[in-house]
Write a structure and sequence with these properties.
There is one protein chain. By secondary structure, the chain is α+β, with helices and mostly antiparallel strands. It folds into three domains: about 5-85, Glutaredoxin; about 90-200, Glutathione S-transferase Yfyf (Class Pi), Chain A, domain 2, CATH 1.20.1050.10; about 235-290, no CATH class. The chain has helices spanning about 15-25, 40-45, 70-80, 90-105, 110-115, 130-150, 160-175, 185-195, 195-205, 265-275, 280-290, and strands at about 5, 30-35, 55-60, 65, 120, 220, 235, 255, 260-265. The strands form three sheets. It has a four-stranded mixed β-sheet, sandwiched between helices. It has a three-stranded antiparallel β-sheet with strand order 7-8-9. It is globular, with a radius of gyration of 20 Å. Keywords: Transferase. This is Glutathione S-transferase. GO terms for molecular function: glutathione transferase activity; maleylacetoacetate isomerase activity.
């Protein structure tokens, strides 16, 4: 048995995003099990990962259950040192762990006023002083990491590491709620929003179902600040392909993209592609192949 990761709604569960990114960025194989928040389905999922009481929860190959994203990060780093979850430099590694730990335990005002919602972006969320203080602290931490260790790449420590997984939902909140963070962090926010795994996670969240009322706010909405999706629409078959680009199974659900119809093995495969076609290498390879053979 390999790793099994329990997560909640992708659009809203910030800790689930952190845990999933640890696997997605490193290529460590994992089976993902999902449950819809505030539903019996979610309670059933957690019951299978007891005594963990929150997501993400991880079942190790020997059957051991662990909760809490920090524990998951350290366990994966210990078991898979070759993937480099933490910076190689000892000082950078110590600071990265510090930042992840402070993110894990702090910033309650930001979390409360701006819960992660990858389905919408707002023009202005009227952040109170407590949120502005959280943002000031985030700026201090990010500036310190970038100034000392950020050479060689757009991430906090130059190259991506587990600390960036912990701050991915923070970047999404700053962008989604249009929070005042300063132009000096534009490149870091852009790196988070354009990161291929983050785009795929968001696309899957958009495909998962209806909005969760708990996360709805009455502020003026605006387009999502990340990459604009290429236009596509759901349609009927037949398609240029007979096998789903993701599973290889026979197709049953279809979309039109750039004048051609493509098929998928279920509505979720189609809808996650509709949400952001360019985020999916398997689909774009199918598109290129169909164009080259037309």
């Amino acid at each position: 048995m390999g790793y099994q990761l329990a997560i909640g709604d992708r659009s809203y569960s910030s800790w689930s995003l952190r845990g999933w990114l640890l696997f997605a960025r490193t290529g460590i194989p994992v089976t993902v099990l999902t449950g819809r928040l505030y539903s019996p389905d979610f309670n059933d999922l957690l019951s299978r990962f007891a005594p963990a009481r929150l997501v993400p929860a991880l079942r190790l190959p020997d059957g051991t259950i662990i909760g809490e994203t920090l524990a998951i990060a350290e366990t994966l780093a210990e078991r898979h040192p070759e993937v480099g979850l933490w910076p190689a430099d000892p000082s950078a590694r110590a600071v990265a762990r510090w930042l992840a730990a402070e993110m894990h335990s702090g910033f309650s005002a930001l979390r409360s006023h701006c819960p992660m919602n990858l389905r919408v972006s707002y023009v202005d969320c009227a952040p109170p002083d407590e949120v502005l203080l959280d943002l000031a602290r985030i700026k201090t931490l990010w500036s310190m990491a970038r100034a000392r260790f950020g050479a060689g790449g757009p991430w906090l420590f130059g190259q991506w590491c587990a600390a960036d997984a912990f701050f991915a939902p923070v970047a999404a909140r700053i962008a989604g709620y249009n929070l005042p963070i300063g132009a000096e962090f534009d490149s870091y926010i852009e790196a988070q929003l354009t990161e291929p795994n983050f785009r795929r996670w968001r696309a899957m969240g958009l495909a998962e179902g209806q909005d969760q009322p708990f996360y709805r706010r009455d502020w003026q909405a605006r387009p999502w600040p990340g990459p604009a999706p290429l236009p596509a629409r759901a349609t009927e078959g037949p398609s240029v392909n007979t096998a789903c680009p993701y599973s290889g199974k026979p197709v049953s659900d279809f979309l039109e993209f750039d004048g051609r119809v493509y098929g998928f093995c279920n509505p979720f495969c189609r809808d996650k592609t509709l949400a952001d076609p360019a985020a999916w290498p398997q689909f774009m390879a199918l598109v290129r192949d169909s164009v080259n053979h037309s």
